[in-house]
Amino acid sequence: MNDIDQYIQNLLKKAGFWDEDNLDLLTEEIKPVLIDTILTNAVNEMSPEDQQFSQHLFDSEASADEIFQYIQDTVENFDEILFETLDEFEKNYLKAISED
What is the DSSP string of 29-73? Predict the structure, then answer.
């Protein structure tokens, strides 16, 4: 299990989901949304030239790992963006769950 999967499973447990089968299923459903949110927030911090190149990567057959690595290497404050995004995602998710 990678760090993103572990983060999501911890988030789901905070929200009250403990069944392992549900954790795996929900993790797979949430993961693309979280990754997209992280990448979008990071790309928004790039120069127009770097944004253009990242768009080229998205359009090419580059793997998700290659794209993620490029963005991580290009965005100077990537760690800060990552932590802020994760914090905001968690707050929004837990708020949405509590409203249901």
Answer: HHHHHHHHHHHHHHHTTS-HHHHHHHHHHHHTT--HHHHHHHHHH
3-state secondary structure of 18: coil
Using CA atoms, how far apart are residues 56 and 54, in angstroms rounded to an integer?
Answer: 5
Q: CA-CA distances (angstroms) from residue 56 to 33, 36, 38? A: 21, 16, 18
pLDDT tens profile 1-45: 589 999 999 999 999 988 888 899 999 999 999 999 999 999 999
Residue of 46, 47, 58 whose CA lies nearest to 66: 58
pLDDT number for residue 20: 83
